[in-house]
Amino acid sequence: MAAVALVAAAPAVVPKRLSVTSQTPVTAKGSLKGDQFVDYVLAGTEGHTLSVAMTTTNRSAYFNLTAPGSDTALFIGSIDGGKFSGKLPVTGDYRLRVYLMRSAARRGDSADYRLRAWVLPTR
């Protein structure tokens, strides 16, 4: 009798789109538990300044920012804190990932969070 291996496919991560303009900061709110994470995508233009700030109920919740076409984060919240502001290196869709640190995730911790993001055009 042949053995059959069943492999469960991981659910696809569907990012939430944020429409960020220089006129009005956009706010996203949510919650996480354990090893959950939430991805947000926002369009950015090379040379514009993106600012993101996060507040949370859990000091182990952070966000990372990744540029289009890159697997390396431009900003790592667990190292750099809960605020980012910087010029965008390329035009395209940037990814913000909100997550709990591994130790908090293993404990099954949860967090409520609020992200605010805004863009300033090049002057």
TrEMBL record:
It comes from the Bacteria. This is DNA breaking-rejoining protein.
